[in-house]
Write a structure and sequence with these properties.
The radius of gyration is 16 Å and the shape is globular. It is built from no helices and 6 strands. By secondary structure, it is mostly beta strands. A hairpin with a 6-residue loop joins β5 and β6.
């Protein structure tokens, strides 16, 4: 980051996957909100993926936010996601963005149906 302060002007909701019993020995997945954060979104690479006759646009984003301590429930981790309205950003990796550990960088993937 080179000392530059990110422009954290996007409000996102951090969500965690929850398994809910379906009463028949299986489960369904729902998403529980953990809280709101302010972040900077930077678009990176994108591509199109075809699956079973359907096409998806896959867009990568680098999402930067203020750091939280390791072990904190509000610290993002892989497998969670950010929501901005109807947009969903799946978190794939999380790391410190600067040597002072003031910010975190999340590598995320947004899936869009064209």
């Amino acid at each position: 980051m080179g000392g530059a302060v990110p422009l954290t002007n996007r409000r996102l909701v951090l969500e965690d996957p929850q398994r809910v019993s379906d009463g028949s020995g299986g489960y369904s997945e729902s998403w529980a909100p953990l809280g709101e954060i302010w972040a900077e979104l930077k678009s990176q690479t994108g591509r199109t993926s075809g699956q079973e006759g359907a096409s998806l646009s896959l867009q990568r984003y680098r999402i930067t936010l203020r750091a939280m301590p390791q072990g904190s429930a509000s610290r993002p981790r892989p497998g969670q996601r950010f929501r901005q309205g109807q947009r969903l950003f799946r978190i794939e990796a999380v790391g410190e963005a600067d040597p002072g550990r003031r910010y975190l960088t999340c590598q995320c993937l947004e899936e869009l149906a064209p």
